[in-house]
Amino acid sequence: xxxxxQDTVTLHNGVKMPGFGxxxxxxxxxxxxxxxxxxxxxxxxRSIDTAAVYENELGVGQGIREALxxxxxxxxxxxxxxxxxxxxxGYEPTxxxxxxxxxKLGLDDLDLYLIHWPVKGKYKEAWRALxxxxxxxxxxxxxxxxxxxxxxxxxxxxxRIKPMVNQVEFHPRLTQQPLRHFTKEHGIQLEAWSPLMQGxxxxxxTLAEIAARYGKSVAQIILxxxxxxxxxxxxxxxxxxxxxxxxxxxDFELSDADMAQIDGMNRDQRxxxxxxxxxx
Length: 280
Description:
Layout: E1 8-10, E2 16-18, E3 22-23, H1 31-43, E4 47-49, H2 57-71, E5 79-84, H3 91-105, E6 112-115, H4 123-135, E7 142-145, H5 149-156, E8 165-169, H6 177-185, E9 189-193, H7 205-214, H8 218-228, E10 232-233, H9 240-246, H10 256-263
Parallel strand pairs: 3-4, 4-5, 5-6, 6-7, 7-8, 8-9, 9-10
Antiparallel strand pairs: 1-2
């Protein structure tokens, strides 16, 4: 289990991925974004997750460069993730999209590159491109996002390389138990986006009651629940205080009873699109 902020999980290819990081979904380019990335890295975060469609890779790259210089770190100290968007799925378009992301970020490579959504009829060719990038040593790990079990089965049928990560919506109202079981069985690391359900869970009475018992915030309880399930998590925040608070989850442990109570909150309820029925 992840025991401190810079602890890692080992992906099936041996690459070590931080168990906790900063997500920047819906954070616009500009000083606020740059400062959020810098605050996270200064506080000890070593994983930053972005995507082409977020349209903020320039600011993420700037924040990374400034943070490395100010904190005496090198590029090797960070784990940076981006994702190829639906419009660029396909062999050559995906290769070009990777280069475009690198250019915006100002990096020579990525630690993890993901297919953002399982667009029917397109993700297999995109995966071939990711396999090429990986085989050429251009990226340290490759994976997918928002893939359900049948998508993973279809992708792995004929793939040369098995996905190392599957980043999906995961929170107490969408516990994804069958998918968690499948990915664990196949050695694919599950990663949570929207772990706080975009803030919808912060006033939940069940979680508030549990949080009060531990003297923690609801957000801290949820993020701790993620880690105890072995799920890598990347909460988003642009406030330095919240960035620090989100990471203050390594001085307590949820009991088995409280873990089970939170598990029981599942409603199969999504805040984002359904991977089997989306239109972008």
